[in-house]
Design a protein that fits this description.
One of its GO terms (molecular function) is heme binding. The protein is built from 9 helices and no strands. It is an all-alpha fold and 160 residues long. It has a single domain, classed as Globin-like, CATH 1.10.490. Helix 2 packs across helix 9, helix 3 packs across helix 8 and helix 8 runs antiparallel to helix 9. It is globular and about 40 Å long. The structure holds protoporphyrin IX containing FE. Protoporphyrin IX containing FE (HEM) binds next to helix 6, helix 7 and helix 8.
Length: 160
């Protein structure tokens, strides 16, 4: 019985909308890195070359040779802008459906490209590592950040 209660608590904890305070903590960390678009994408590709290999424009190329290109900057900006857009809507129950719509669209686009759950998890690991190393980071920020990813990934993984 106790075990079932613990399981129920874990399930409940895995998809709880962010409070306004949590959203503020995540935005605070994100604001410190969001102008480093190119460095963020380079960190993801460097940690996980299988992600780079999914991009028709970047597959099979040396990271150092593509990192300075306009295509690289454009894609890095697309990813970072998407995250900024979602975070701007976080922490407010009135805008939760808008987040769901954006994230569902992202999941469907990426499913069509053959991106896997493991690769989304790799992306999360690399991004979290980058942000935690470049923004003031404490247990409260980490917990809010993880809650944000748990929520978004619950939607994405249900579609993949
Ligand atoms: C939360 C994680 C991710 C975010 C926020 C994100 C964001 C985006 C955005 C905004 C675009 C451009 C719009 C679109 O075409 O949908 C895009 C395109 C793309 N993404 Fe992602 N992505 C994520 C994870 C991944 C992962 C894990 C992979 C590969 C393993 C991947 C591969 C691609 C590819 C191949 C494109 C198309 C690039 C092109 O136009 O040539 N993405 N992504």
């Amino acid at each position: 019985m106790k075990f079932l209660i613990v399981l129920a608590c874990i399930a409940a904890a895995s998809a709880a909308p962010l409070s306004a305070d949590q959203a503020g903590l995540v935005r605070g960390a994100w604001d410190k890195v969001k102008h480093s678009e190119v460095e963020i994408l380079a960190a993801v590709f460097s940690a996980y070359p299988d992600i780079q290999a999914r991009f028709p424009k970047f597959a099979g190329k040396e990271l150092s040779s593509i990192k300075g290109s306009a295509d690289f900057a454009l894609h890095a900006t697309r990813i970072v802008s998407f995250i900024s857009e979602v975070l701007a809507l976080a922490g407010n129950s009135a805008t939760a459906p808008a987040i769901e719509t954006l994230v569902t669209e992202l999941a469907n686009n990426h499913k069509n490209r053959g991106v896997t759950k493991d690769q989304f998890t790799e992306f999360r690991t690399a991004l979290t590592s980058y942000v935690s190393g470049h923004a003031p980071w404490g247990d409260n920020v980490a917990a809010a950040w993880n809650q944000a990813f748990d929520n978004v990934y619950a939607t994405i993984f249900a579609k993949l």
